[in-house]
Amino acid sequence: xxxxxxxxxxxxxxxxxxxxxxxxxxxxxxxxxxxxxxxxxxxxxxxxxxxxxxxxxxxxxxxxxxxxxxxxxxxxxxxxxxxxxxxxxxxxxxxxxxxxxxxxxxxxxxxxxxxxxxxxxxxxxxxxxxxxxxxxxxxxxxxxxxxxxxxxx
Length: 153
Prior knowledge:
This protein is α+β, with helices and mostly antiparallel strands. Helix content is 24%, strand content 28%.
């Protein structure tokens, strides 16, 4: 009868490492990641509002003194019009940038990523009551305010 050689011990050690790593990966992907990425529970009527609320960046908005975000004092209602779409109808690229950091616990940080080119749009689904003043980063005279409120029904 021969005694185990070092290659057998090496093989057993490798199997133990592989099993340990597999258990760690399963735990990480099954429990840790989903929990860390979990979004809060939000009512279905808020996630799928009755309609979209459109804010237009109007032609000539880049000129100081002209209308820019129309309407620039917007009031939307949760479950009714809380999916807001900013459409750029101007020839110039613009942004929708909050004056101060603003976020929604379901949708994340508010604000367009980069510029909204002519003919393009930016949309955001609000799920919480809040008020956010915003502006266009390259054209700071372009300002707006959006108020998200509870619907009365």
